[in-house]
Amino acid sequence: MDLIVWEDIIKLLLAMLLGGLVGAEREYRGKSAGLRTTILICVGSALFTIVSGRFSEYDRIASNIVNGIGFLGAGIIFRQETGVQGLTTAATIWSVAAIGMAIGGGFYDIAVGGFVLIGATLLMLSALAARIGRISQDRQYRIVTIFKNQTLIHYEMLFKEFGLQVQRQTQQRIGNEIIGYWRVSGPEDAHERCIQQLLSDPEVKEFTF
């Protein structure tokens, strides 16, 4: 084998290593894109970049990698009543693909630098993000109760009593029941105290948050 083939093998092995390290963190946290997924994405991106370097349409193939990873990441994002899930994992997939492309292109300094920053973001900033989340959280509340005049206003006033900012969303009446949705912002402890109050309310038939 000549030198360039050995260099390509080293690129793929490096992509496997860096992608695997990022995937190990995701696997540890129980995320959908774990060890094998991130390895395949990083190695695949590096392989596509290596192969595209041997063709004249390098830029087009590189841009198609980005588009393909975008579709893959979009499949991980899903919306729940309480918010959007999977954004961090989708962003991780996108970033791992960028590492693979940098390795495939021979930009080892950029690849390693990007890996260090991505790893630091996932490992070190998670505690900071959790702390910020305790200071201010956005939650989606859904309350089902018996219809009465001023019923939903009563719950909006309850949110405000606990120091929470409330934004009314859709409301729906079905028979003698009324369903209300709110977007509520405030400290975590205020949310928890409000939730305990709502859980102990005998007139609340269903409650999600």
From TrEMBL:
Keywords: Cell membrane, Membrane, Transmembrane, Transmembrane helix. InterPro entries: MgtC/SapB/SrpB/YhiD_fam, MgtC_SapB_SrpB_YhiD_N. Residues 12-129 form the MgtC/SapB/SrpB/YhiD N-terminal domain. It is a multi-pass membrane protein. GO terms for cellular component: plasma membrane. The keyword Cell membrane applies. It is found in: Cell membrane. The chain crosses the membrane at residues 6-23, 35-55, 61-78, 90-108, 114-133. Belongs to the MgtC/SapB family. This is Putative Mg2+ transporter-C (MgtC) family protein. It comes from Larkinella arboricola.
